[in-house]
Batch of 2 targets.
Target 1
Amino acid sequence: MIDIISEPAGAPARRMSARPGAKVRLLQTAVVLAALVCAAAARAAQCPTPAAAPPPWPHLAEVDRIADKALARVPMSGLSIAVMRDDKLVHAAGYGKASLELDVPATPQTVYGIGSVTKQFTAAAILRLVERGELRLEDDLRKHIPDYDTGGRVITIRQLLDHTSGIRNMTTIQPLMADRSMDVTRGQVFGWLSRTPLDFEPGERYLYNNSGYWLLGAVIEKLAGEPYDTAIERLLLEPLCLQSTRYNVPGEIVPHRAAGHVREGGRFLNAPPNSPTRPYASGALISSVLDLVAWQRALFGGEVLSAESLKLMTTPGRLNDGKPTSYGLGVAVTNFRGHRKIAHPGGIVGFSSFLAYYPDERLVIAVLTNTMGVEMRSEVEERIAGLLLPAAAGSAVDATGQRRRTRQ
């Protein structure tokens, strides 16, 4: 017998058993909750124990100086950096504040909005579905999302992935940006996108945009038979034990979550609300630098995709006329000082990010900050890379490593 409320002395007894079925429902709920707790505990037990702190690194003081200068120069409220070399974590640290209001320091465990770095996860999920034979990169979008009006044009899954679809970037469509705190529905987004003229015919040009990845999220939901967030968790996050990475739900309690900030009039302010339904599969994930370097190790170590799929992901796309672009499937494909570089910047309300992988050196650098619109994120990454990667012979890149960047 389960008593919910203790009654005052002399009061008529009120027990849950007085309501038919209540006791059964409570027991069923308790069983379900216990099962969920046990499942979570089992998953945690299967995940590797967090690595011990890395040994002293020769470049530690130099990275600290880079971070401190960046915090003061922009300025930024907080910053976390992780560096992995040859699958070994050689540096992980936080600088500044994860929350200015609460005076909480940033750490390697701090969780930030990662913005467009989310696209790597979305692209990987699509490629997993390709490997299972559930879709092809050359499929017409309408095959999987028949209620999206393409105006009679064939727009392929590949063109959504490599930004050659011609669909207008949703961040430039006023109704989608009017009140970012409000949720948007699939029908609203489909309507706004399909009613907006294309920027160019599919495959004719490359133009970075978020709309294609929003639509890819809908494709994932259709084929997986579940919401995007749970599909990403099941396909990628749980198997890889990325416990700090998840779809951003503002109301959830997230351990180590940073507060997002913006700069106005020379002072920091709390970032305004931003519904995750707007960035969705193009930018709504949150993560830590430790999870992001672990993600890169798994992705490029063959734990996520086949060698064939990984090659597709990291090969620059081609336009209808055969000319290559600088973007693969969810990643920018470029170089730094003559070294091959696979990377992506990210920016979302309150946060900025940069994630880079140098395949020939097996070097990963993750930079996350809780200040919006910080271009310094890429400069921080390049300055750290510059400590480790000498300019290759014949490199056309200047000493600062400045090159054309992929927009977020």
Note: DSSP finds twelve helices and twelve strands in the chain.
Target 2
Amino acid sequence: MQRYSGVAMGLHWVMGLIMIGLLAVGLWMVDLPLAPFKFEVYQWHKSFGLLVLLLLVVRVGWRWTHPAPMLPVGTPRWQVKVAEFTHFLLYFLMLLMPLSGWLMSDAAGYRPHFFGLAVPLLWAQDSVVAGWAKWVHEMAGKALIGLLILHVGAAVHHHLIVRDGILLRMVPKGLRLPQPKLFGLVLAGILPFGAVQAVEWQVVPEGSKLEWEARYSGSQIIGNFGVWQAEIRLNPDDLADAKVRVVVEVASVGSGDENRDKTLKGIDFFDAVGHPKAVFESSKVSKTSAGFVAAGTLTLAGVSKPLALPFTLQIQGDGAQRLALAQGQVSLSRNAFGVGKGEWQGNATIADLVVVKYVVKATLK
């Protein structure tokens, strides 16, 4: 999983804590009795507000040179757009809040300082400008509170319910966050975003293929299956609900030789009449050091055997426009499935192991 850089994480959490503190103090300090302590609190409020403005400049510069990591596979396009718009508003309000506060202080005749250091004068004393700046500052504060609630709520939703790893992108690697499943189930019934999202893929025939290689009298025979379908539910960031089901029409077998293909479809091999379909159905999909593996059962020629299909996975694009490319290969014992009976049984003419190669190109449903 791609994570934000350490600098981006630090800026995010430091600025977030400062802004929450500023909003809380801002709501509290207005009701303080008029006394030296109130002026001191106001000055600290202004200093930390200017600090947010300074950190925002650094953060925007860092973000410009260090793009954000890609969103998890299967993130709906509308959520991508909402996230982009929400982040834009957050950055805008993080700019507007300190600037309007700075302008309000100058126009009201209370020039702010940055932890004791003088700052430039934005505006001469003007009660009208001070009134407008105060209104903007208060409205921006209320809007920022609402956006922060939405932002935190969305992060909790993705972490506890969708479990797509979005929140983990903004925490250091190795830091374990709680995954209370019961709490997640409760939230699934009350949050308006809905339940856990399954990531389903649709196979793109162009670029997808199912091939096999066998040895016949020492020579290599290469063939394929021309007709097959796959049902794929896979989120590489959360494999708990992953499932792969492949159905192959064995009568679509081809090897480039008409007579040989007729034999392969016959009762001694695939028995396309008695057992027209070969079916693989996974029971678990897990990550490996080389990629992924789908463990399940293959039913071929009426015989069912456990099988593990290793594969690599590459995903390009973003949001609903993502394109996945999975590929791998596995060796099967044809004798274990009874493929090759009578004179074809054994390994004298046809080798027992057959290599099956698969390339699957898919888009999000």
Note: The chain has two domains: 6-190, 200-364.
